[in-house]
Specification:
This protein has eight helices and two strands; from the N terminus they run H-H-H-H-H-E-H-H-H-E. The chain is mainly alpha-helical. A two-stranded parallel ribbon has the order 1-2.
Amino acid sequence: MVPIFQKLNFTKSEIRVLFVLLLILFLGVGIKITKGFISDDSALFDYAKSDRMFRDKSDNLLSVLSDTNIVVDSLFSKGELKTINSIKSSEDSLKNIDGKKKKKGKKGDDLKEKSININTATKEQLILLPGIGDSTADKILMYRKEHGAFKNIEDIMKIKGIGTKKFEKMKPYITTD
């Protein structure tokens, strides 16, 4: 027996297990190193190329669908068409005149001051306001249905989820006229 194992009070079976584990470790490292020398880089897959192909094909599909009205109604439901058109319009809104994409700004940057009447706005118009999402827009529409028109813009803070911070962000963009 090896003297170091005797000092550590290892039994013969413990020493055997330790040697087997070390042998497996060295074999694994050897195999890993050998595979590194033998294998070539052709086995690696280039995902960037497939991503570009997917993007190009989906852009072509969107442009074909938006340019033609042939059989489009039978291919997609109205909800799917609305989604396709919203994707297309959001992509178009992000493009500059040069065709380059610009950075997406904060919500509300495209709105003019006092541009949305909260008493007549649709859900889609309400969602354009900073801090307003789907559920909050639904709450505003529900409030209008149950309580009638807002008397002033501050009344929008009666909606659960709209506090002073959200109100201050949307204040320049809303009106009750």
